[in-house]
Write a structure and sequence with these properties.
Strand order of the largest sheet: 2-1-3
Largest sheet: 3 strands, parallel
Structural class: alpha/beta
Helix content: 25-40%
Number of strands: 3
């Protein structure tokens, strides 16, 4: 692997990071979780990528999207 970026994004299948950024597979290290929230597991994955691909990673992106059902459910429960 030689990802140029790390993306924290929602698990929603309608928002594939590779298509959003018009890049091929294996160019992004993508961490996906419902609501694109930064929990311990996601942070650990991002830290792993930063430690193992320091020569290629140039940016870290947190990518959300409109009408996210996970965010709406969390707000509704709160």
């Amino acid at each position: 692997q030689a990802p140029l970026g790390i993306v924290l994004g929602c698990a929603d299948a309608r928002v594939p990071a590779e298509l959003v950024f018009n890049t091929g597979f294996n160019r992004l290290f993508v961490v996906r979780v419902a609501g694109n929230v930064l929990g311990d597991e996601c942070l650990g994955s991002i830290e792993y990528a930063l430690a193992h691909f320091p020569d290629t990673v140039r940016l870290v992106i947190v990518m959300g999207h409109g009408a996210c059902g996970a965010v709406a459910a969390a707000v509704g429960a709160y």
